[in-house]
Amino acid sequence: MTRIARAQAYIDHLEIFDYLEAAAAQYKSEFGAFPTDLNQLVAKNIIPEIPPDPFGYTFDIDKNGTVDINLTIPPTANPLNDFGVSSDQ
Q1: Could you give the angle at the alpha carbon of 61 between the alpha carbons of 75 and 41, nearest 5°?
Q2: Angstrom distance (rounded) from CA 38 to CA 75
Q3: For the chain, which residues make up each domain, given as ranges?
Q4: How far apart are CA 87 and CA 89, in angstroms?
Q5: pLDDT tens track for 58-88
Q6: 9-45 pLDDT, tens per residue?
Q7: Cβ contact 57:75 at 8 Å
Q8: Which residue(s) pair with 67 in the sheet?
Q9: Within 13 Å, how many C-alpha atoms sit on residue 24's CB side?
Q10: Alpha-carbon distance values, 83 to 10, 47, 57, 71, 77 (Å)
């Protein structure tokens, strides 16, 4: 992964947070509470799918509608390996 591609992946990662949190706010507006699971956004046709994280993490949502990554599930990809950086560092 080039530095430009890596930078774009970070931008995409942050934009997904904004997208999912905006969708969660719409969900709350329509149903009176934030979703307890991001899959509810898809089930209620607020978004077509949960976008994949460019770093392979899984997204979670808390009771306040804040989206974060789930660090208990290992990522499915580690683009930092392309720079010789392990996830242990």
Answers
A1: 100
A2: 17
A3: 3-78
A4: 6
A5: 999 999 999 999 888 777 765 555 544 444 4
A6: 999 999 999 999 999 999 999 999 999 999 999 999 9
A7: yes
A8: 61
A9: 23
A10: 15, 34, 19, 21, 13
Tokens linked to 2: 């080039």
In the 3-class helix/strand/coil scheme, how is the chain assigned residue by residue? CCHHHHHHHHHHHHHHHHHHHHHHHHHHHHHCCCCCCCHHHHHCCCCCCCCCCCCCCEEEECCCCCEEEECCCCCCCCHHHHHCCCCCC
Q: Which two tokens stand for residue 26?
A: 């719409």
Is the separation of the CB atoms in 42 and 23 below 8 Å? Answer: no
Residue 34 in contact with residue 64, Cβ under 8 Å? yes
Q: Judge if pTM exceeds 0.85.
A: no
